[in-house]
Design brief:
There is one protein chain. The protein has 139 residues and is of the alpha+beta class. It has a single domain, classed as Jelly Rolls (Sandwich). The chain has four helices and eight strands, in the order ββαββαααββββ. Strands 1-8-3-5-6 form a five-stranded antiparallel beta sheet, covered by helices on one side. Strand 5 and strand 6 form a beta hairpin. The longest helix has 14 residues. It starts with a strand and ends with a strand.
């Protein structure tokens, strides 16, 4: 069993920005030489998340709006009472959606659906520099 790990730095510009990571993940698999296994994409941070989605303008708009409906900005969050930094909703959203995905691959290719991409979503109230970890386990 082989393991390959890569650090990936990205920058988001604003809350709810989505960044497609599919090509970077595909390139990492190819460069690793590992033909089958799993790749995990993980964001280090408590206000960003990794999802799969059809990366198209409608869903880029719809997904954050859905999160805003179920986790509105203007509720009284305990995090806000503690830190007064205005991003209590960001932490709750990120906890709900999650910081990572694990995707299988075979013959060096991700096992994604035709319209499915790997995407980072910024949930903090401002753009951030983010550290992501991509890790492959396979053979």
């Amino acid at each position: 069993m082989a393991v390959s790990t890569k650090s990936l730095k990205i920058h988001s510009n604003a809350e709810n920005q989505m960044i497609d990571l599919t090509q970077e993940t595909t390139d990492f698999i190819k460069k690793s030489g590992i033909l089958k296994g799993i790749v995990t994409v993980f964001v280090s941070g408590s206000t960003g998340s990794i999802i799969t989605i059809e990366y198209e303008p409608g869903l880029i708009k719809d997904f954050p709006e859905m999160l805003d409906r179920i986790i509105p900005r203007d509720l009284d969050y305990g995090h806000e009472q503690m830190w007064h930094d205005g991003n209590g909703h960001s932490h709750v959203k990120a906890s709900l959606v999650g910081p990572s995905l694990t995707i299988p691959f075979m013959n060096g290719k991700l096992c994604l659906g035709r319209w499915q991409q790997i995407v980072f979503i910024e949930l903090d109230t401002r753009g951030r520099n983010r550290d992501l970890i991509l890790q492959i386990i396979g053979e």
